Amino acid sequence: MGTILIFCAHSDDEAIGMGGTIAKYVSEGKKVVKIVFSHGEKSIPHLQEAVVKKARFKETDKASAFIGIASNKNLGLRDTRLRSDVQKAFVARRLREIIMLSRPEKIYVPSALDPHPDHQAVNRIVFQVVTSLKRHYPLYAYEVWNVVRETHPRVYVDISSYIKIKMIYIKMFKSQWVYMFSLYFPTLFRSFYYGRENSCQYAERFYKLR
Known about the structure:
Elements: E1 3-8, H1 13-27, E2 31-38, H2 49-67, E3 71-77, H3 82-85, H4 89-102, E4 106-110, H5 117-132, E5 139-142, E6 154-158, H6 163-171, H7 177-197, E7 203-208
Parallel strand pairs: 1-2, 1-4, 2-3, 4-5
Antiparallel strand pairs: 5-7, 6-7
Helix pairs in contact: 1-6, 4-5, 6-7
């Protein structure tokens, strides 16, 4: 059983970018492991950070169980401060340990061209760690808030059989519904548009980084 390793700045990033592909991997018997860099404690400013953390942990576990993610890990770095936090030496060491122990057949990260600085930070540090390892690990980028197309080779995954699961998965991150609602219909349209480019009904697009 192969392992798929997904890195996220926040616990809902991959739902937008690759929820359908995750469901497809699970149906194929792959072990999907999700690594989240922050607790997302700044996402609801009017609530205490401890309350937000608890809510996000609870919904992440529930959503992961629904879609079939085998394991969630959280690095506990500061939300909105990942650009500085990922520079700490222990972060790179921890990422190396996770990757080398998991021996994944594929690794996924947010796109470097995503406008969110936390997403950019995750892309940068994971790319640095992966390229420093002797073993070659295929690395792909997924889209969340992207409005600019990358120049890297594009890979499409047919998610026609999993689009309903993806959209339900997105809705399960209820504490983030203000943000998720703004992405919900654009994500559905984007999947439909990518499906047309891939000669299917719905698809997700990734960029092959290495």
